[in-house]
Amino acid sequence: MKLSGADIFVQVLLEQGVDTLFGYPGGAVLNLYDALYKASDKITHIMTAHEQGAAHAADGYARATGRTGVVLATSGPGATNLVTGIATAYMDSIPMVAITGNVGNSLIGKDSFQEVYITGITMPITKHNFVVRRVEDLAHILREAFRIAQTGRKGPVLVDIPKDVTGAMTEYTPAPPVEIPARQDYDQAAVLHAAQIINSAQRPLIYFGGGVRSAGAGDALRQLVQKAQIPATYTLMAAGVLDYGDPLNLGLLGMHGSYTTNKAASKADVLIAVGTRFSDRVALDPGTFAQEATIIQFDIDASEIGKNVEVDCSVVGDAKVVLEALLPHIQPAAHPEWMRQLQSWQSIDYRPKDHTDRLTPHQVIGATCELAGPDAVYVTDVGQHQMWACQYIRHVKDRAFLTSGGLGTMGFGYGAALGAQAALGRDQTVVMMTGDGSFHMNLNEACTAVSYDLPVITIIFNNQVLGMVRQWQTAFYGKRYSSTDPHRKTDYVKLAEGFGLKGYHCETVEEFRAAFAEALASKKPAWIECRIDKDEKVLPMIPAAGNVDDIMMS
């Protein structure tokens, strides 16, 4: 049957199981929006306040579900407004398909109104991108985009479609959804070698990252931890994969990890790295990181093997497949001396103090976890609050802690939270934690929350400064607070009301508990401002390029 390019676009989305997309209309994509109008009973389109918010929403949708998020924007500024969101997804290996319109083929290269070379702009931050020059190629390219986004190391793919392609007619042949089986190939000899190293370890440590979550390898990882009784530590991107109550879960590793986790990495005799890339926020000094250990690295991306830290044994492959292949060769074990050593270090770990006369981050987060329950989904922006959330949230489950790790995108949280809420439904509790600095970047998405009745509860840690930057200025720049106090006078309660949602202002834990309970019961979007001291710090902290010997506890 013959269809227009715009109708083919919608049919391929339906083929791939897309039920929701995020975007903002404009001239170059009017044909696509007309086709979406006709299919509005099958695909929900959520129009955000800004295209960046739409990109983050598609990202949050993907993180919360594992499915490919889809975002649609018009040409020129619409397309360029997606760039930060695409880069955020790229750095964290999130499957996303970004669709941009462009001027017609005859106008390309002539500096036409709202023309931009978006494929060139996004080439370094996408797995692949396409320009569809002929309507006959549209269906195949869109299907390829979905395949590439989910294949191997996942990531964003951009498809740029000139306007005349969306209006042209061609024959359309339906196709089944693109099936993406897990990569099955791996070096069996390397797996056996890794098992031998693990079985002979006296002080083993598992260090895992977002690749475990991406591969759905959580169960296999937990089996490895339990079978060999190996303590484990993780990156920001993997929070929630292990139960916080598990005594073998040591917590976060790296710059804001505990003394115990960092000391364990420095003294382990075998380090098993799974789905992680030894980033500079973990291996702060690559030359001294885990220098006593035989290092094993499992990763789906061969380019990550030994890229940041030299390793002794490696297996390239899907984390779930490789761990399942490894498990039968692992001998049940116990490491009592190692565990006693870890427990002695845990007695040194930093522990924040409770206060009754003011709000502290750990008390706010503790109350949130208690009131939100074990099934809540948590989303963060970037900054001090992000680290506090990772350190103190205790009820996180897999795919329920969504944060920008690699790019560290301030303003990520609100869009991502709305995407997660749209994906998981109104009955899912979604809590977004942000700081006043991050929140000012994309708080305009409050109108999206209200328009689509997405009941995200936003907790604003308001210290009235750029907290993380100020903390660095305190520690390393002689307290020269250059441009970290913006002197904003924002009244969050009045501003919330202006957007059409409920706002709360809290200065004690009791006030916060009451506000959160009311917001949760309302099933409506809400903001809760929590005033905290501007000198609250994220502790512990290891300076950049340092190691555990440089750890700061105050």
What does this structure look like?
This protein is an alpha/beta fold and 554 residues long. Helix 12 runs antiparallel to helix 14. The strands form four sheets. A six-stranded parallel beta sheet has the order 3-2-4-5-7-6, with helices on both faces. A six-stranded parallel beta sheet has the order 11-10-9-12-13-14, with helices on both faces. It has a six-stranded parallel beta sheet with strand order 16-15-17-18-20-19, sandwiched between helices. The protein is built from 22 helices and 20 strands. Helix 22 links the parallel strand 19 (502-506) and strand 20 (526-531).
Strand and helix map with partners:
Elements: E1 2-4, H1 5-15, E2 20-24, H2 30-38, E3 44-47, H3 51-65, E4 69-73, H4 77-80, H5 83-91, E5 96-102, H6 118-122, E6 128-131, H7 138-150, E7 156-162, H8 163-167, E8 169-171, H9 188-199, E9 204-208, H10 210-214, H11 218-228, E10 232-234, E11 249-252, H12 259-267, E12 270-274, E13 294-299, E14 313-316, H13 319-326, H14 336-346, H15 361-372, E15 377-380, H16 384-392, E16 401-402, H17 412-424, E17 430-435, H18 436-442, H19 446-451, E18 457-462, H20 467-476, H21 492-499, E19 502-506, H22 509-522, E20 526-531
Parallel strand pairs: 2-3, 2-4, 4-5, 5-7, 6-7, 9-10, 9-12, 10-11, 12-13, 13-14, 15-16, 15-17, 17-18, 18-20, 19-20
Antiparallel strand pairs: 1-8
